[in-house]
Amino acid sequence: MKINKAELQEALEKVKPGLANKELIEQSTSFAFMGDRVVTYNDEISISHPVKGLDVKGAIKAQALYEFLNKVKKDEIDIEWEENQVIIKAGRSKAGIVFEQEIKLPIEEVGEIGKWKKLPMKFLDALKFCHPCCSRDMSRPVLTCVSVGKESVEASDSFQIVSYELDKKMPGGEFLIPATSVRELVKYEITEVAEGESWIHFRTEEGTIFSSRVLSNKFPDTSKHLEIDGIEFRFPKNVDQILERARVFSEKEISAGDIPIATINIKNGRVKISSENEHGWFEEEARVKYEGRPVIFSVGIDFLINLFSRLQTCIIGRDKIGFSGENWKHVIAMLAEDEKEN
């Protein structure tokens, strides 16, 4: 069977995020071929993608297949499926990889996929905007998820809340999708959604299906926390450049995962931006027009850099800072008095 190597590689690349790091579930580190689709499953997400010209059922260790194809120079490869191995020929190269005809992955747990419905155009933007604000604290599982409602998408880590209003109502019911799933999902140009039992499914125009487990818990009502009264504050024009420098020494605690964090301190007509990690620390001050009481808060650097490309103002309230745009709100709690700098 002759297969276009680039098309097979593209399919494997699409489903690769669904592989497990360790095989706690049998074949969860393998590519499962099911007819004309290749599938991965790691108990949290499952991804499948069509492969043109393929019609076989079985599982192959992902690392061996993926790495061998990356080393092959030929555009077209010849694949022969035998009882316990797959033979791949590419020019003068020939390799045999163990092939398990029985698929042992519990893919049936994903269940049946409901009717496909069109997603709101702003849905993917909403996921990208909200998921960095989710908590990493598994003792509060609801806050480790992005909350998808009928009209908006929300997230919170109890120190900050973000809400993004959709351009159209979300089809189907409300659900909580883990931020760990969303971090992979936002890499796909999804256009459709379908409901399942304890799973939610998304599909791209190319036919990739991304399935994720969802939580049945209810997300807290954040509406009262999103409202903020206070004074308008304008950051300096070069704040994005300062943040880029701060990013070099951005904090990377377990609770923050891989999200770079900056601390903002506003007092006495100056704003100081600081960051630190195991390699060192950074701080830089700039003059601002502000005569109010001292303010200090911590927030993701990437969020601020992205934000300041559109606006440079916020609202300083009694105990929180508020940023807002045409269809979104982001509120951050100020640090407690004993956490402020002397």
Search tags:
single chain; 342 residues; alpha+beta; DNA Polymerase III, Chain A, domain 2; 3 domains; 12-stranded antiparallel beta sheet; 8-stranded antiparallel beta sheet; elongated; disordered C terminus
Structure notes:
With 342 residues, this protein is α+β, with helices and mostly antiparallel strands. It has three domains: 2-110, DNA Polymerase III, subunit A, domain 2 (DNA Polymerase III, Chain A, domain 2, Roll), CATH 3.10.150; 117-224, DNA Polymerase III, subunit A, domain 2 (DNA Polymerase III, Chain A, domain 2), CATH 3.10.150; 227-339, DNA Polymerase III, subunit A, domain 2 (DNA Polymerase III, Chain A, domain 2, Roll). It contains seven helices and 24 strands. The strands form three sheets. A twelve-stranded antiparallel sheet has the order 1-6-7-8-5-2-3-4-16-15-14-9, with helices on one face. The chain has an eight-stranded antiparallel sheet with strand order 13-10-11-12-24-23-22-17. Strand 10 (145-148) and strand 11 (152-156) form a beta hairpin. Helix 6 (239-247) packs antiparallel against helix 7. The radius of gyration is 24 Å and the shape is elongated. Residues 337-342 have low confidence and may be disordered.
* CATH homologous superfamily grouping of the largest domain: DNA Polymerase III, subunit A, domain 2
Q: Which spans have pLDDT < 50 for at least 5 consecutive residues?
A: 337-342
Assign the structural class, choosing from mainly alpha, mainly beta, alpha/beta, alpha+beta, or little secondary structure.
alpha+beta
Query: For the CA atoms, what is the radius of gyration?
Result: 24 Å
Gross geometry: elongated
Query: Biggest sheet: strands, sense, closure?
Result: 12 strands, antiparallel
Helix count, DSSP H or I runs of 4 or more residues:
7
Strand order of the largest sheet: 1-6-7-8-5-2-3-4-16-15-14-9
Distance separating the two termini: 72 Å
